[in-house]
Amino acid sequence: MSRIKCPVMVLGITTDNFYPIWQQKEVAEVLQKSGNGAVTFFEINSIYGHDTVLLDLSNFGVAIKGYLETSLEVCGNVSKSLKTEDKCGIWSEQLSAEFDNAY
């Protein structure tokens, strides 16, 4: 994991039995300990378990939207132009625009 240097968001859902919250916390900790200083861990408390990603859009979507907006600000690339490639990548801009339209 020491090769991963890009910003990373690890999402954990407290009621997810397929990917328990302790595993998600461990992934975030290992990334941080391996030298990635741009790791964000976000814990979602939801009654839907593993299906939260499908059923709880208000919590899940807001978490991702907030992360992407913060990530773009940190990287200094808040424009919607898809022509400029930076250390965060074009992918982040495209997803941010999609979430701006969805929420």
Major sheet: arrangement of strands: 1-2
Largest sheet: 2 strands, parallel
**Tally of helical segments:** 4
The structure class reads mainly alpha
> Which word captures the global form?
flat
Work out the strand percent.
5-15%
Q: Summarize model confidence as the mean pLDDT.
A: 76
Radius of gyration: 15 Å
Task: List the main descriptive attributes of the protein structure presented here.
103 residues, mainly alpha, two-stranded parallel ribbon, 4 helices, 2 strands
Structure write-up:
The chain is flat. A two-stranded parallel ribbon has the order 1-2. Helix 1 links the parallel strand 1 and strand 2. With 103 residues, it is mostly helical. Helices cover 48% and strands 12% of the residues. The chain has helices at 21-33, 52-55, 57-75, 90-102, and strands spanning 8-13, 39-44. Helix 3 crosses helix 4 (90-102). Residues 76-99 have low confidence and may be disordered. The protein contains 4 helices and 2 strands; from the N terminus they run E-H-E-H-H-H.
